[in-house]
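Trying the structure run again after the queue cleared.
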Amino acid sequence: MIPEITLLKKSNRSVVLAQKGAARKLPREPRVTNNALSQTDRFPAPHFTETLKSDYSLSMRTLFVIPLVLMSLVSLPSWGLTMDDLVMRAGLYYKKFTAVPFSGEVEGQFNGSFNDGKKEGAWEAYWENGQLYYKGSFKNGKEEGSWVIHHSNGLLREKGVYENGKKEGFWEWFLNDGSVWKNETGTFKKGLKVSD
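Done. Tokens:
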């Protein structure tokens, strides 16, 4: 039976071999041509494992860099601000750890815009189960225009019009089973119910 020999290291002057866990060094005779070392002994070609290692690391770097570049080009909604990133002080919204009222957009459970710390324009909000909570508009931080508000089961809860943050005109309310809530349904003037 022939013993197993494994090449551990190869250099210009010697070859290191391992046989059953014991390493030993064998001298290497240089090839001599015309009393001088040949071109291959002065500048030996890289060992096959060295070229494979460099090719392998190059391909691994490429496989690592390409997805990073692609991910940086794709905009993900989770990278935007949410209402959790804001705090309210004296009726205005601020980005956490800042002293300037927030202007910009938020995404997630609440979607809309702020201008100088006040809600502005179209807004939508969702219950934690994903059902629409409300859809309406704000002007200078106050509800304005047509609004619809839903129960967490998705059924309509109320609908009507806001003017300057107060209910105005006919508002219709519904219970969470879809039936009309007669006690709340009626005509409103400056936020107060004036008739059924």
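Confidence is low (pLDDT under 50) at residues 12-23. Worth checking whether this holds up in the mutant runs.
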